[in-house]
């Protein structure tokens, strides 16, 4: 199995506070890989470090065969084109329509013609289950579930190999949340994606993840399949997964 992400001995410090101390994990091609743990354990920070939005203090992170610590700006750009990110708060630009938001990475990272970009945007809108006319609406005019789909369409704009999702179902009603889970599963199959997701949505964790990493007390308390987790002696795991769904 090919490793697409490998984090080794990662340490993260903010001022006096040590957030991660010797984190190791690896994500294989085709997996939906979840990062789970108590509030404040550093899940979002880890995701931000992997996508080069946050510096770390020690250790190394390899993504798609490249060590991200020592890349030229040209290599950074080439690497960033190969992943898409959906942040927790959607992060759509409110002054742009849904279609314009989805077009942004294409405008920024490619020299495709406007006609070509419009075609790709239309395709991505359909891919995530939005209607063609939704593209004309502004983020304030659509529901939370639609905003997540629009954010997802933007993350998929450049046909990434890797998709990063930060709590994709948070803030969604249960029906929209399950719809989003199914969308993720369908897209993984259709597009051969590898997906890394931060989540604390138990249903979503059970329904979508192949592998899970639990961060607790600055370290990886567990990495493996959900079945293997049953034998783990960890207080967070015991309380969080108390409800077997
Ligand atoms: N830029 C920063 N400067 C200082 N401290 C930070 C910064 N970013 C994160 N932290 C701290 O690092 C810790 C981990 O934060 P992070 O948001 O990664 O946690 P999390 O596991 O994603 O939490 P939650 O589940 O509540 O979203 C927190 O204590 C947070 O206050």
Describe the protein's topology.
Elements (H helix, E strand, L loop, with lengths): L2 E12 L2 E12 L3 E5 L6 H8 L7 E6 L2 E2 L5 H8 L2 E4 L11 H12 L4 H14 L16 H12 L6 E5 L7 H18 L2 E5 L3 H7 L2 E6 L2 E6 L10 H6 L5
Parallel strand pairs: 3-8, 3-9, 6-7, 7-8
Antiparallel strand pairs: 1-2, 1-4, 4-5, 9-10
Helix pairs in contact: 3-4, 3-5, 4-5, 6-7
The chain binds adenosine-5'-triphosphate.
Pfam families: ABC_tran (PF00005)
GO molecular function: ATP binding; ATP hydrolysis activity
Keywords: ATP-binding, Nucleotide-binding, Transport
Gross CATH architecture: 3-Layer(aba) Sandwich
H/E series: EEEHEEHEHHHEHEHEEH
Counting DSSP H or I runs of 4 or more residues, the number of helices is 8
Number of strands: 10
Query: What is the subunit organization of this protein?
Result: single chain
Quote the CATH topology.
Rossmann fold
Helix content: 25-40%
By CATH, the superfamily comes out as: P-loop containing nucleotide triphosphate hydrolases
Strand order of the largest sheet: 6-7-8-3-9-10
InterPro entries: AAA+_ATPase (IPR003593), ABC_transporter-like_ATP-bd (IPR003439), ABC_transporter-like_CS (IPR017871), P-loop_NTPase (IPR027417)
Keywords: ATP-binding, Nucleotide-binding, Transport
Pfam families: ABC_tran (PF00005)
Organism: Sulfurimonas marina
What would you say this structure looks like, in words?
The chain is an alpha/beta fold and 245 residues long. It has a single domain (30-41, 72-212, 220-240), classed as Rossmann fold (3-Layer(aba) Sandwich), CATH 3.40.50. 35% of the residues lie in helices and 26% in strands. A hairpin with a 2-residue loop joins strand 1 (3-14) and strand 2. The longest helix is centred in the last third of the chain and has 18 residues, at 174-191. The chain is globular and about 55 Å long.
